[in-house]
Amino acid sequence: MAAFAAPSMAQDTIQEVLQEHRAVIEKSSRKTIAPAIDAIANSGLPSAQTVLQKWQSKEMWQRKEDGLFFYAEEVDSKTYSLFDFQDGAALGEAAKSDLKQLKPNSGIRAMIGAALVQFQLNDPDPVRRSEAILAIQRDGEASHLAPLRASIAGESDPDIKALKEVTERLLTISYDTDDAARVAAIQGFNGALSLDARAALNPVLTTKIALKDALPDDANIKDRVIAGSDALPFEDALAMIVDAGLIPAQPTVDERKDALLANITDGQVGGVAVADLDTQEARDRAYMALVADGKVPAWDANYSIEEAVKSTAFVEVYAEPSKAVTDAATKTIKTIDRAVGLNQTMDLALDGLSLASIYFLAAIGLAITFGVMGVINMAHGEFIMMGAYTGYVVQQIIPDYTVSIIVAIPAAFMVTFAAGVAMERLIIRWLYNRPLETLLASFGVAIALQQIAKNIFGTQARPLTSPAWLDGALVFNDVLAISYIRIAIFVLAGVFLAVFLFIMKKTRLGLETRAVTQNPRMAASMGINPDRVNMLTFGLGSGIAGIAGVAIGLYAKVTSEMGADYIVQSFMTVVVGGVGNIWGTLLGALGIGFLQKGIEWLNPSNTLAAQTYMIVFIIIFIQFRPKGIIALKGRAAGD
Questions:
Q1: Concatenated DSSP letters for 146-173?
Q2: Which tens digits make up the pLDDT trace of 330-376?
Q3: Kind and range of the H or E run holding 475
Q4: Among 170, 205, 164, 206, which Cα is nearest to 188's?
Q5: What's the count of helices (H) and strands (E) in the chain, helices before strands?
Q6: Which of left, alpha, beta for 607 (phi over 0: left; psi -120 to 50: alpha)?
Q7: CA 75 – CA 88 distance, rounded (Å)
């Protein structure tokens, strides 16, 4: 075997520290190893971290000849290359038989890991520092507190420093022995929304029920507990009293029966013939006779659990002995609950706004056709479905999701615009002013379109994948967040509103549409073709439904029946808002979206109830305001 040089043994080398604690390192006992680990960690030598890391990973070896320590790398099954801890210099090779591998058990490795924290918290790499802090938050212990505090002052990264300060407060709450420091740390979380803060505070407020007289005078009592309440049933209260030795345990019916069987002598028990023990009264009399003879445990026939426990005081006592700490934790939890409640309300409002945006997109086209033409188009949901499938087909052709969505929006408009024009020309135009026939005809078209979609795309849901930049969510805190897709739908709804208002207010089609809406006969006498306006209007409403389908497809599943999920809400939105009025449709969508989310929040286990209650509310609403929130004048209003 090749010879190698011995490492330097100059004063204050890491090898010198190791040799000083050689005996306990060799013994490798969790009970005695702590001084050696502390000596290495606190030596101030640059190589201390390397020693601890190699030791923890079982890569530290000791040469049997002189007891020196190295870290080694395997050359082959019988040979290892040795390296000096001090400077990492290669020291040659050695036979495995000449070396002893240090294999710390899990307990020692955990102690080494705790000692390594101080190095990781001051690592030059900010990523490693962040990882170390997060590791402490997941599995912190008392030994982490001192090095964490020491690392805060020298932290240069403001985000990491803030993370260290929060983690220091968490550890202070759990492990510091100074009540004043713990109270200050607890108060630092006033109004905090972090789940870690609540996880640290909840153990502080852990309680148990105990006998008041059995507690020391300085016990931290939370409140009195009444025996017989839900918190302390009579049976549990009795068991506590018996365990404390305050009263003897009363034998149960089965125990008394076993005692009678065990004391049968010459066909009698306690002077009562066995044949006569056919009633509970006889059995009780026999047992009392055995009690008088001292053969069985005493039993009180008039015993009552309620009477036994009523004179005993029970209290709920904190496991935390410091009242100042529990009072601070209680106050802080209340501020956290208020903050969480406020943010949950805001989160519910965002959910309601998001749902309202979806309903607005689904209903805006229906508001045009229903409002201007008075046509009850039951196939409107299928136009939404056609738009979603158009987006899916475009994504099969264009693999770039961003480009495909940009292309899919106008493509869906053109496809559903053409379908709407075709439907109006072939069916709807012959059924004006015949609402029942229009409803039945459009319902038949809806069924046909669903079946065509099933024949082409099958019954399984098809993915309409959003671009990568729409993945994830905008997170405000641990409670409040909204997905980027919902934000995109909200923005798209706002764009639709602006475009629709522009068309209706600034274009010739909008002028003619408003004229036909207000007075079709007068509009015709002014040279406007109501038939052409109806065709374009129906096509416009259908085209907008197609674009809505693309947006909804990014959020919901794309199936042949997806339109049926939105047709009822679309009609409710239009009716509540006011037929044919875009602002009414917007208000209707907001009202229904917030109402549905509010009902779901009150009854989260039954989503069907939300739909039912919402329909009932709308029925009641239209009894008082049959023309909706904003009533439209003209043909749609029945003028």
A1: HHHHHHHTT---HHHHHHHHHHHHHHHH
A2: 999 999 999 988 998 998 898 888 888 888 888 888 877 776 667 78
A3: strand 473-475
A4: 170
A5: 25, 12
A6: alpha
A7: 17
